[in-house]
Every structure is written in C-alpha cells, then in structure tokens.
TrEMBL record:
Protein's name according to its UniProt entry: Non-reducing end beta-L-arabinofuranosidase-like GH127 catalytic domain-containing protein
Domain Non-reducing end beta-L-arabinofuranosidase-like GH127 catalytic positions: 42-236
A Pfam family annotated for this UniProt entry: Beta-AFase-like_GH127_cat
SUPFAM superfamilies associated with the record: Six-hairpin glycosidases
Species, as recorded: Thermoanaerobacter italicus (strain DSM 9252 / Ab9)
Amino acid sequence: MKVSTKFQHLFNLTDDTGILQHSLYSIPDLTKGYTTDDNTRALIAASMLYEVYKDEKYLELLRRYLSFLIYAQNSKGYFRNFMNYNREFIEEVGSEDCFGRCLWSLGYLLNTNLSNGFKNVALALLKKALPNVANLNFLRGNAYSLIGLSLLYNSDVTEFNKEKIKNLMISISKKIVQRYRQNKDGEWKWFENVMTYSNAVIPWSLLKVYTVTKDEEVLEVAKESMEFLAKVTFKNDYFKPVGCKGWYKKGNEKPAEFDEQPIEACETALMYTEAYKIFKEEKYREKAFKCYKWFLGENSRNVSLVDEETGGCYDGLTKDGVNLNEGAESVISLIITEMIVNHTDIVFK
C-alpha cells in the first residue's frame, strides 16, 4: 500500500526562506523558526520527489532549500543550524551532526540528474566544507560525513581528488571501528555504551565506506552492529526504535519504550536498503519495508502516523498515544522512506 498523497504538508511548512521546523498540530509554528538540519534533509526529499515525478514544483522547493544552505554556511565552511523567524542565526557554528547531514545532502545532489545550476552550488559549498571534515570528533557527525564523502566519491565530478576522498574515508572509518572495538562487550555489539538517536546511520556509514574501499573489517563491523540493532528494534516482527525518553544503556534489561520518532524509521530503512544493495539478501529489503510500514500502522500502537488530509506525518508515538504535531523532520522522514522503498532504482544513491 502506498500513501495516497502528494505530501502537501511539505509545501505547507515551506515559505520563502525554507522549511519551518515545527508545527502546532498541522499548522506551521513560526515561533520555532528554522533549522539547517531540516532544510538539508528537505533538499534530499525534494530531490527524490523531483526525480520520481518530474514536477517543476519540486524544483522550486529545491531552490529554496539550497539557498538556505548557502546562507547557513559560515566563512570557515561550517554550517550554522538554528535560525529564528527573523532570518537570524542564533549560533555561529552548528553541531557536527548538522555539518555531516549537509555533506550527505550535497553529495546526494551530485548523484542526481539535476542541472549543473544546482550541482555547481553543491560543489561550491562542499569545497568550503571539506577542509573541516578531518577535524570532526563526534560519532554521528563523522558517520553522516562518511555518507556524504561516499556520494562525492561516486559522483561524476572531477573537481576533487578522488584518492584523497577515499583516504579521508579510510581515516574516519578507522576511528569508528576503533570506537566499536572499545565498546563491544559480550552480547553488546555497539559503538557506545548507550544507544541513543540516529543509530542506523553508524552501520550505514560503514556500509558506504565498504562500497568504496572493500575493507572487510569495516564490513564485518557494519554487519555485526546492524544485526545487534535489529535484535533491539525488531523484537516483535515490527519496527520499534529505541525510545528517546531514556534510550538504551548497556546493562539495562530493555530499551526505553517511548517516544518513537519517524527519523529512526527513515534512517533504518536507508541502512537496510544499502545492505540489500551490497548483500542481495531479501531479508534486508523486507526490513526496509517494515520501517516504511511503521508509518502506516504496523507499529507498537497499531496506528498510522500519516495525516491523509495534509500529507503530513505525526511527530511520533508516545506512552499516551500519537504526538499529533506535524513537524518538518517527520514529513521529510516519511517522504524519504516512501521514495526509497517504492522507487529504489531511481532515488537510492
């Protein structure tokens, strides 16, 4: 079953500046402003929608989101993240996660059939950003960056030294593998002593590294950690992410039950789609589809998170039911997940 909507909520949340961060129920909440996190992921979602439907309205969204990233990048090549409704960034440097997500989206753009008008901007932003990659310290910032670097490596652009990109990927992946070796303990096969947010991005990034380097150790760690994550999140044959109200600490009997957030289903689907691409095992494609079905009601609450009226996505599952707000991260997660499971050959890079 496909969601019968054209994702109107993506347009509802987007103004002349970019995509707004939050909504109160389905109405955009101007008081919360914007984030680069959301606009850079919206860039991927809009790119996928355009590649599938070839509708000019998605190109207009692309222009706004890419323009937002131009404004977000500071003079040193990092990206500011939080912007108020007056179009003023409230910080000079955003998180490393935000930086890595920007590399991911810009790298993704280079692998599309979009015109050079879009790709040249992506290249310009990447040129400013790349010198900072080697200085990243945080696990997920490095993981998102690896995904972006792999996309850059596999693109047709000639402006970058591909061997340097590959060596940078090797260097970063070694740090992640080392984190895994340090924290792996018996049945606990993870990169930290607690599972928190965006867990799937870490093994996914190592799968991306393997596609470039063919490093078997990297592949082994990716597969072990991916299987451990599956044991945690697929106990009842449906997807149930680690709850953000407490996470999952090593030694605890089980993960926190809630809240379950859409971004986790999206990124887990991306990880499994990559795994299917590498291993060609049907179980991975099936798990990616189960992540999609989480949005449609195959979840711990047996309730759909899709607002059929707006084309939006509710913000998650809580101990009390459904969070009926419809923020940017949620609808973007729904779009990306639907695109990759239903149009894999077109949109998955």
